[in-house]
Design a protein that fits this description.
Elements (H helix, E strand, L loop, with lengths): L13 E8 L2 E5 L8 H11 L4 E7 L4 E6 L6 H12 L3 E4 H7 L3 H20 L3 H19 L10 H32 L7
Parallel strand pairs: 1-5
Antiparallel strand pairs: 1-2, 2-4, 3-4
Helix pairs in contact: 1-2, 5-6
Length: 194
Amino acid sequence: MRLDPDTGAVEGEWLLLVHHSPGRLRVRAACFRDASDVADRVRGELGETQGVFCTVHSPLTGSLLIEYSPDIADVESLLASIVDTAGLDGIVDSQAMARSRKPPAEHVVDGARWLDGLARELTGAGLYELIPAVLTVTGVYSLVANPKQKGWLPRWDNALYWAYSVFRDGVHEQEREDAARVSGTVAFRPRPHA
């Protein structure tokens, strides 16, 4: 399997293993989309395979659902038959690919760390300092300029509470980072020779 260095996509025409549980197999390929004669050819081949009960083609998604008896037919043979009949390059396991991907929350955390680093580089203060400052200014402005609490500004007391909360959490986070840094240096300090 080769990856395209520009897009990170898998080169060639591959069969994507979407889901498998004993007796049910769902695969997808671009050549199965629309009114595909390739999908019909694969369905015909699988229909002659002993142990296969039915195959359902979804032209919209380009997927095939194969129901089979796991006592009679094995999944490796079915996949090999599909790849050979459709003339595909091989099989990609989407479940294994999904397990190897980063969860979305990690992307958010990485983005916040990058933004914090950028803020420190540009202003000398991190997000835990800048956000409470902005919220404090917003709260004071809301109290002075918008005493009836109408419009798009948050209520002054909410803004000040959020400012305090973010600042408090930032102080605790900084203390945790400092403690981890100190314990890390102590844990890896070499022992003096006796």
